[in-house]
Amino acid sequence: MAELKGRHFVHVLALELDPAWRRRPAEDRRADAEALRVAAETTARRVTTYTYSMIGTRADASLLFWRLGASFEDLEETAALLLRSGLGAWCRIGYSMIGIVRPSSYVKERTPQEEAMFTGDRSRYIIVYPFVKSTEWYLLDEEARRRQMSEHIRVGRQYPMIQQLLAYSFGLDDQEFIVAYETDDLQAFQDLVRDLRATEGRRATVRDTPQLVGVHRPLPEILELLGG
Questions:
Q1: ∠ CA(29), CA(34), CA(36), 5° rounding?
Q2: Beta pairing partners, 51
Q3: Which long-range contacts (CB under 8 A, 24 or more apart) does 73-81 make?
Q4: Is 106 a catalytic residue?
Q5: Where are the alpha helices (DSSP H) in 44-134?
Q6: How many whole angstroms from its chain centre is CA 25?
Q7: In CATH terms, is domain 9-100 a member of 3.40.50.150?
Q8: How far apart are CA 164 and CA 126, in angstroms?
Q9: Where in the chain is the domain with CATH 3.30.70.1030?
Q10: Which of 19, 157, 183, 211 is the most exposed place for a label (fewest CB within 10 A)?
Q11: What's the topology of domain 112-213?
């Protein structure tokens, strides 16, 4: 696994498997799965990678890679290896989101909730989605924006069992931000979302879908579930 230090680029790569692959002979499926496993092991030396299963929970993605890299080229070249290796060649990209981790304008330093997205053990579930705010939000004066963000942050800190990360995508991708959460308790996360919807900042939300929810599993376990 690559070191996390200096890993400023975030890549969410969600792949959907061609159903025809499951109809291949078992021996061919095992070979394809092994080829992807080896490729993922190789890329992990360069790009920090965590894998999540979305099998059967969405129609457009089955396997999610949460990737942290030091450069855009690191993400591009390692993604190319994954997509041409074994089972990867049978996948299409369901979703791909790129962002950069930067210091927040509203928080002096990351709390343990944010740091947990870079260090320590992974939680059972990840929730990732693109986020776009309204033009009106950016035209508010700084004090109004800071007041609304302070309310948002205060609500989030009432749920210390949920880790969070915001990556900045504007200028690099279609969305403005990538929002990611990790938790062992999906009901608590749903409670957090309910509470955040009641904050003033919710008025500025233009888009916060699709919601990608994955179960953290080692890649070999996911490949076995897929039929490899």
A1: 100
A2: 65
A3: 74/9, 74/46, 74/47, 75/9, 75/11, 75/47, 78/43, 78/46, 78/47, 79/11, 79/13, 81/39, 81/42, 81/43
A4: no
A5: 72-84, 112-115
A6: 32
A7: no
A8: 10
A9: 9-100, 112-213
A10: 19
A11: Alpha-Beta Plaits (3.30.70)
Angstrom distance (rounded) from CA 168 to CA 223: 31
Q: Which of 50, 129, 159, 181 is catalytic?
A: 129
How buried is residue 56: exposed, middle or buried, by Cβ count under 10 Å (0-12/13-18/19+)?
exposed
Phi-psi domain of 220 (left: phi exceeds 0; alpha: psi -120 through 50; beta: other): alpha
Please state the pTM of the whole predicted model.
Answer: 0.91
Q: Is 171 left (phi over 0), alpha (psi -120 to 50) or beta?
A: left
Q: What is the pLDDT, as a whole number, of residue 104?
A: 75
99 touches 168 (CB < 8 A): yes
- Total Cβ atoms within 10 A of residue 188: 14
Q: Which amino acid is at 154?
A: R
SS3 content of the chain, % helix, strand, coil (to 5): 40, 25, 35
Cβ proximity of 23 and 75 under 8 Å = no
Write the pLDDT tens digit of every residue in 30-85.
999 999 999 999 999 999 999 999 999 999 999 999 999 999 999 999 999 999 99
